[in-house]
Amino acid sequence: MSLPQKLDRLLSRADEIRHALNTADGAQVGALSKELSDLEPLVEKVQEYRATERGRDEAEAMLADPELRELAEPEYFALRDRLPVLEREIRLMLLPRDAADQGNAILEIRPAAGGDEAALFAAELFGAYQRYAATQGWRFEVLEYDEGELGGVKGATATVEGRGVFAQLKFESGVHRVQRVPATESQGRIHTSTVTVAVMAEAEEVDVQINESDLRIDTYRASGAGGQHVNKTDSAVRITHIPTGTVVAMQEERSQHKNRAKAMKVLRARIYDAQRNRLDSARAADRKSQVGTGDRSERIRTYNFPQGRVTDHRIGLTLHKIDRVMLGEFDDIIGALTAEDEAARLAAEAE
Question: Of 174, 277, 182, 259, which Cα lies nearest the Cα of 219?
Answer without folding.
Answer: 259
